[in-house]
């Protein structure tokens, strides 16, 4: 009796799928750890700079000096905000790259396995296998083209976001420089 289901291959497939899911979960947890560390460091820095700024302002005796101190505190805070934004963007971009890499590997494996299945079916039943094989090959070609287009579009969106982050950083730095009192 011919068993159409190969239990060993099914088990291997399930094991591979579990490994992919574990890789994605590890990537997500790593990203969350980094985000938590970034937020904790930013909160600590905000608290320290606010406390220092408040102490400086409480020591002011002249209203003109108050304006100078407030202006001198603005620039470092804007710089810290921009650094936080860049770090947040870098974290998101790195996670996106890692997840995309896993998905590309998974898709490559799927294409390879499907090509093997098409060959097997074609060899087992030459007459109906040709029709099935041609249809499957056409479907895989369309699927590959769509996947490549989506991957390229995601990379272009990442490049656009990177350019926008740099432009905003530059504009914000220039605006903060304009707020800083000249000595």
Automatic annotation (TrEMBL):
Residues 8-107 form the Phasin domain. It comes from the Bacteria. This is Phasin family protein. It comes from Candidatus Accumulibacter affinis.
């Amino acid at each position: 009796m011919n068993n159409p289901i190969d239990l060993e291959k099914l088990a291997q497939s399930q094991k591979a799928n579990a490994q992919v899911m574990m890789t994605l979960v590890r990537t997500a947890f790593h990203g969350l750890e980094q985000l938590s560390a970034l937020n904790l460091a930013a909160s600590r820095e905000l608290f320290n700079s606010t406390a220092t700024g408040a102490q400086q302002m409480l020591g002011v005796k002249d209203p003109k000096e108050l304006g100078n101190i407030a202006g001198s505190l603005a620039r470092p805070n804007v710089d810290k905000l921009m650094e936080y934004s860049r770090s947040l963007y870098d974290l998101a971009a790195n996670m996106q790259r890692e997840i995309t890499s896993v998905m590309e590997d998974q898709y490559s494996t799927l294409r390879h396995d499907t090509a093997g299945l098409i060959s097997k079916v074609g060899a087992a039943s030459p007459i109906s296998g040709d029709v099935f094989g041609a249809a499957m090959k056409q479907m895989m070609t369309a699927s590959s083209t769509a996947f490549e287009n989506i991957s390229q579009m995601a990379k272009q969106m990442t490049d656009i976001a990177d350019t926008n982050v740099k432009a905003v950083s530059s504009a914000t730095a220039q605006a903060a420089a304009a707020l800083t009192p000249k000595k």
